[in-house]
Amino acid sequence: MSAAKLQDKDAATNPRGIPYAPFVDKVEDYVSSRAEVDGTMKSFQEMISKYQFMEVNTQRRAAGLKEKVPDIKKTLDMVQFLSSRKPGSDPIETTFELNDTLYAKAAIPPTDEVYLWLGANVMLSYPIVEAETLLESKLSAAQKSLENCEEDLDFLREQITTLEVATARLYNWEVTMKRKENAENGKEDAPGDQKRRLPNG
């Protein structure tokens, strides 16, 4: 079977559109002769590389989300605390960070407005109710994205393992066919045949 047909064999994908790797139960379903082994082996290696590339990118995205989620939670907790304060309550004395090593004292009276950083050096004011709704939405989206990343990482590892097993089966099939052909021709395995290794070996 050609590399193109091999890649088209399993069109199914996971919910994020990552395709399933072909599961090789019978090598004969993918190659009909030893002449097709090298091309199929190369196709397997290309797919493994693509899955590994996606795995690295997904790991980076998950790492960013793992830092982002606690920050959103902390901001949401503070907004909810400010929202719970009654008008006329005494100001709260606190400190706030000016930079990594410098803090300043502040007195925070009851308020119905907060300022949120949106990124790219942009800060906007929101009524507390709107700020709480916005942060809850952002937190939910970030948690869902992190969950999807973790599912994708498990999926990608499974596909890489599937292709590594397929590569091993293809290699073993070729060795068996080569020995069979040599036996039929009355030849012994050539010295170089014993030295051949799997692409990842």
Tell me what you see in this structure.
This protein has 201 residues and is α+β, with helices and mostly antiparallel strands. It has 4 helices and 4 strands, in the order ααββββαα. It has helices spanning 3-8, 37-84, 128-184, 191-195; strands at 92-97, 103-108, 113-119, 122-127. Strands 1-2 form a two-stranded antiparallel sheet. Strands 3-4 form a two-stranded antiparallel sheet. A hairpin with a 5-residue loop joins β1 and β2 (103-108). The chain is rod-shaped, with a radius of gyration of 29 Å. The mean pLDDT is 86.
Helical segment count: 4
Query: In sequence order, what are the helices and strands, one letter per element?
Result: HHEEEEHH
Globular, elongated, flat, extended or rod-shaped: what is the shape? Answer: rod-shaped
The percentage helix is 55-70%
Biggest sheet record: 2 strands, antiparallel
Give the distance, in angstroms, between the N- and C-terminal Cα atoms: 24 Å
pLDDT averaged over residues: 86
> How are the strands of the largest sheet arranged?
1-2
Structural class by helix and strand composition: alpha+beta
Q: What low-confidence regions span 5 or more consecutive residues with pLDDT below 50?
A: none
| Fraction of residues in β-strands | 5-15%
**Rg, Cα atoms, Å:** 29 Å
Beta-strand segment tally: 4
